[in-house]
């Protein structure tokens, strides 16, 4: 239980930076969708989907590999510096190749007239890929507050620069053009449009790298080729896993333009609507990401121990992930009529994807929890198999469903493809994991909590429109309290659970 408390504490710290950071970035979505039409915002969503894939490729599983070997090797510093040299070299090589082949790369991405956007994001992702290892080192050293502080600085600077470039500069151009004349007009001024978003991003990434200099300097760099080969042997299946996984996560935004060639504007509009609305479901992604930051160091540290305690800790972690994931799902769906105002009314036609994507991301989070069995048994090739299965399902379902639904609602097919694919690999991973690393997961209890959440969700949707708005939200809030009350009754939550059990006895409930 002490391990779970430590995991919860670190998840809370990482979660604060992740949730606050992503929430603040999320707040930029209204700015983008009110300033830019759906087809132009579609380019932003489309390009960021590609950069997500590039980031995984440029990390090639070294982040997880670092955690594994830092806990195995006698000299963790050598593991760290070897990883830094490797990722640093490939990041510089990536920038050089992108610069040389920029035009053909932009053409293959169906953006021949936006090469500068492609280059800006390419350099940004190379810097971020290298920065991930110092961030991993902070997690390894359990410096969660420094990690969170730098992450929040990155977000704050990015938001500030977005507001400056997109709102302040146009105003200054009207009232005091000389103040910004040295950079604003040479870069295109208002006509640079969404390019200011990408410029803000690259500046933020450079500043973050400078903040990480204490983790990069003042140490003796030692490169060990044999160690790197062993790390790559462990990590290369994770690269396939990561690429297939991130392609699956971004499949909708990436594939829609290719399915509707000749109808580029309508396709980009669909990508914009889909990309804006799945940002509402990002709360589940933030929770999974925060959990992941704490969970990987946790499982490898627990693996050093003996006995059944570590297995119980893994099972408890899964249970509480599901519990909190279901709570987040209910909270977002119950208050979606309020949350929808974060995007322009012109994007509201895509709100139908939110519950589908929330459920999909919950399944993906459970799949990530299940992944410990192949990481701890060094069977990372199974992670590759799972991701390839997910990728194949996602690609096939997207091609089928998006094309079948067509313009303008084809993005719904992408949402259903995500849910179907994540659910499938979650189930497959569970049954394969039972063979290689069986764990006594409390399936009955997790199933009961899921059923309870489903009943409350159905009831909350059913009352919509039946009551005055204030009464509807009051009722839904009570439903959330009921859900938490049931959890606290049957789980050991300090102070709250004993109180609820006494209350249950007083009231005569025997369940």
What does this structure look like?
This protein is mostly helical and 511 residues long. The chain has helices spanning 2-26, 28-35, 38-59, 62-70, 76-100, 102-108, 115-140, 144-175, 195-211, 225-249, 251-259, 264-278, 282-302, 309-334, 336-339, 353-370, 372-376, 381-405, 411-436, 443-462, 469-490, 496-507. It has 22 helices and no strands. Helix 14 (309-334) packs antiparallel against helix 16 and helix 21 (469-490) packs across helix 22. The mean pLDDT is 84.
Oligomer: single chain
Main β sheet profile: none
Mean pLDDT: 84
Discrete helix count? 22
**SSE series:** HHHHHHHHHHHHHHHHHHHHHH
Q: Unreliable runs, pLDDT <50, ≥5 residues? A: none
Helical residue percent band:
over 70%
Strand element count: 0
Question: How far is the first residue's CA from the last residue's CA?
Answer: 25 Å
As a percent range, the share of strand residues is: under 5%
Shape: globular
Structural class: mainly alpha
Instruction: Give the C-alpha Rg.
Output: 24 Å
Question: What labels would you give this structure?
Answer:
511 residues; mainly alpha; 22 helices; 0% strand
């Amino acid at each position: 239980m002490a391990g779970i408390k430590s995991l919860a504490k670190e998840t809370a710290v990482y979660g604060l930076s992740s949730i606050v950071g992503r929430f603040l970035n999320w707040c930029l979505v209204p700015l983008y969708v009110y300033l830019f039409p759906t087809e132009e915002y579609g380019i932003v969503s489309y390009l960021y989907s590609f950069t997500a894939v590039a980031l995984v490729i440029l990390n090639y599983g070294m982040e997880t590999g670092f955690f594994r070997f830092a806990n195995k090797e006698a000299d963790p510093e050598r593991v760290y510096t070897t990883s830094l040299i490797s990722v640093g070299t490939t990041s510089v090589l990536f920038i050089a190749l992108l610069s040389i082949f920029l035009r053909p790369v932009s053409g293959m991405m169906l953006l021949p007239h936006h090469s500068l956007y492609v280059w800006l994001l390419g350099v940004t992702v190379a810097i971020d890929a290298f920065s991930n290892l110092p961030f991993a080192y902070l997690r390894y050293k359990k410096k969660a507050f420094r990690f969170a502080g730098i992450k929040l600085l990155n977000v704050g600077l990015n938001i500030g620069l977005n507001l400056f470039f997109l709102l302040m500069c146009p105003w200054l151009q009207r009232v005091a053009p000389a103040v910004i004349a040295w950079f604003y007009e040479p870069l295109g001024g208002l006509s640079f449009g969404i390019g200011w978003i990408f410029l803000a991003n690259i500046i933020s990434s450079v500043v973050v790298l400078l903040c990480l200099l204490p983790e990069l300097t003042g140490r003796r760099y030692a490169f060990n080729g044999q160690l790197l080969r062993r790390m790559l042997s462990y990590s290369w299946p994770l690269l396939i896993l990561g690429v297939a996984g991130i392609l699956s996560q971004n499949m909708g935004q990436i594939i829609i333009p290719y399915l509707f060639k000749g109808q580029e504007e309508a396709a980009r509009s669909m990508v914009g609507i889909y990309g804006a609305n799945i940002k509402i479901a990002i709360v589940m992604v933030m929770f999974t990401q925060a959990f992941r930051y704490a969970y990987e160091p946790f499982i490898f540290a627990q693996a050093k121990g003996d006995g059944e305690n570590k297995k119980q800790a893994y099972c408890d972690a899964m249970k509480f992930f599901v519990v909190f994931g279901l709570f987040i799902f209910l909270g977002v769906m119950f208050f979606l009529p309020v949350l929808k105002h974060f995007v322009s009314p012109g994007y509201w036609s895509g709100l139908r994807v939110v519950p589908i994507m929330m459920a999909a991301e919950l399944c993906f989070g459970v799949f990530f929890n299940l992944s410990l069995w192949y990481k701890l048994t060094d069977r990372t090739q199974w992670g590759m198999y799972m991701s390839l299965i997910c990728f194949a399902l996602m690609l096939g379902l997207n091609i089928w469903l998006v094309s079948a639904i067509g313009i303008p609602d084809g993005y719904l097919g992408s949402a259903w493809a995500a849910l179907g694919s994540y659910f499938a690999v979650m189930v497959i991973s569970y049954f394969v994991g039972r063979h290689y690393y069986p764990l006594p997961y409390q399936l009955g209890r997790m199933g009961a909590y899921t059923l309870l959440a489903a009943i409350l969700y159905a009831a909350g949707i059913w009352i919509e429109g039946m009551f005055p708005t204030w009464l509807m939200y009051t009722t839904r809030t009570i439903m959330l309290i009921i859900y938490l009350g049931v959890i606290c009754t049957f789980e050991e939550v300090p102070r709250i659970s004993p109180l609820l059990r006494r209350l249950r006895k007083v009231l005569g409930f025997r369940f």
